[in-house]
Amino acid sequence: MSQIMKAFFGIFLIMFMTVTSSGILSGFMTVVEAQNLHAQIINELEDSDFNREVAKGCFKNASDVDDTLELTFYLLDNTTKTVADASQIPDSNQIIKARVELKFDYIVAFFGVRQKHVLSGYAL
User: Fold this and answer.
1) Is 84 helix (H, G, I), strand (E, B) or coil?
2) What pLDDT does 7 receive?
3) Using an 8 Å Cβ cutoff, are 65 and 49 in contact?
4) DSSP summary character for residue 60
5) Measured distance CA(58)–CA(68) in Å, rounded
6) Which residue, among 84, 86, 59, has the nearest Cα to 70 in the 3D structure?
7) What is the DSSP letter of 67?
8) For 105-119, b where at least 16 C-beta lie within 10 A, e where not — what string?
9) DSSP 8-state symbol, 110
10) Is 72 left (phi over 0), alpha (psi -120 to 50) or beta?
11) What distance in Å separates the CA atoms of residue 111 and residue 23, rounded to the nearest whole number?
12) Closest CA to 92 of 44, 39, 40
C-alpha cells in the first residue's frame, strides 16, 4: 500500500513541476522576444538615421506582437517630442537621438501573473 502512495505522490510531483516549469519558460520566452524586438528597433532607427518610414515600420512591428512602442525624440533645438503613434513622427533632419521604450505584458498563466514591463534604451 505504501508503494502505491509513493508512486502516486512521485507522479503528482513530476506533473506539477512540468506544468510549473512550462509556465515559467513561456514567461521567459516573452521577455526574450521583447528584448530582441527592442534591440531590433534601436538598430533600425540608428542605421536609418531616424528615417520616418523606418520609424513607422517599427511602430507596426511592435503593434503586430501586441506591444506598445513609445519614442522620445531629442531635436536640434534642444526640445523633445514624445511619440506614441506613427503619424506624429517629426522630420528626421531635426533628430539628434531617440529614447525607445517598449512596453509588453509578462504573463505566467499558471500562477495568474500578468504584469506590464518596459524596456528602455537610446538610439544615437
Assistant:
1) coil
2) 94
3) no
4) H
5) 10
6) 84
7) -
8) eeebeeeeeeeeeeb
9) G
10) beta
11) 8
12) 44
CB 116, CB 103: distance < 8 Å: yes
Angle 118-68-27 from CA coordinates, rounded to 5°: 55
By 3-state DSSP, what share of the chain in percent is helix, strand and coil, each rounded to 5?
55, 30, 15
d(CA 116, CA 46): 26
Cα atoms found within 13 Å of the Cα of residue 31, Cβ hemisphere only: 13
- Ordered per-residue pLDDT tens for the chain, 124 residues: 789 999 999 999 999 999 889 888 998 999 999 999 999 999 999 999 999 999 999 999 999 999 999 999 999 999 999 999 988 999 888 999 999 999 999 988 778 889 999 999 999 9
Question: To which H or E segment does residue 11 belong?
Answer: helix 2-47
Q: What is the pLDDT of residue 53?
A: 94
Report the alpha-carbon distance of residue 30 to residue 114 in Å, rounded. 12
